[in-house]
Amino acid sequence: MKDAKTLLVSPGKDYVVDALKQARAKKKPALKNKDLQELIERLDAKQAVSVAMPGKALAALAGLDSAPPGTGDALEGIEAVGGGITAGKELRLDLAITAKTEENARSVRGLLDRGTKLGVGALALLSEDRKELALLYDVLKSVKVIGKGKVVGVSARLTADTLQDLFGKGG
Question: What are the pLDDT digits (tens) for 62-73?
Fold first, then answer.
């Protein structure tokens, strides 16, 4: 940990060691990837959990061979992903996806729209008999995908009422 509020995670030990050295020297850590650096600096400090990652980390995911057509191409077109979860009167997920080109952004939006619609349809059928899927169904129903230019925004929310319905008044 860098301090009491920050947890450093990296695919390589060198990145964490460099960040710790810079923190001890009271220097502002600087990343080699300037786009990722800018994304991290724009993260909302009010979020309980924040995420920032380069797009190539998504493109390297295992199992893309069995993913729907176009998934690999869409993921390879992502430059960076940032955002997080905010807890308050509701749980809110907000992500910003920066694509390499506007065409890549359209591809990502299309993939997210189709995936959300398919998930909502499938979970509508499955969640009637399985209460544990009702929460996922409610989350997927709340997903909003927007975009302008090379940026795709994704948001989802869970209200206190939804959580209370799922877990009961005492839970």
Answer: 566 677 777 777
How many CA atoms, within 13 angstroms, populate the side-chain half-sphere of residue 87?
4
Residue 125's alpha-carbon distances to 112, 121, 129, 151, in angstroms, are 20, 7, 8, 33
Rounded to an integer, what distance in angstroms lies between the CA atom of residue 57 and that of residue 79?
10
- The C-alpha atoms of residue 112 and residue 142 are separated, in whole angstroms, by 13
Q: 128-141 burial, b for 16+ CB within 10 Å, e for fewer?
A: eeeeebbbebbbbe
The angle subtended at Cα 97 by Cα 54 and Cα 114, nearest 5°, is 120
Q: pLDDT band for position 7 (50/70/90)?
A: confident
Task: Give the domain ranges of the chain.
Answer: 1-30, 33-167
The burial class, CB within 10 Å (0-12 / 13-18 / 19+), for 152 is buried
What is the gyration radius of the CA atoms in the chain, in angstroms?
Answer: 18
pLDDT digits (tens, 9 = 90+) for 78-120: 988 999 999 888 889 999 999 999 999 999 999 999 999 999 9
Which of 36, 2, 42, 38 has its CA nearest to residue 19?
2
Reply yes or no on whether the pLDDT at 3 is more than 70: no
Residue 147 in tokens: 């975009």
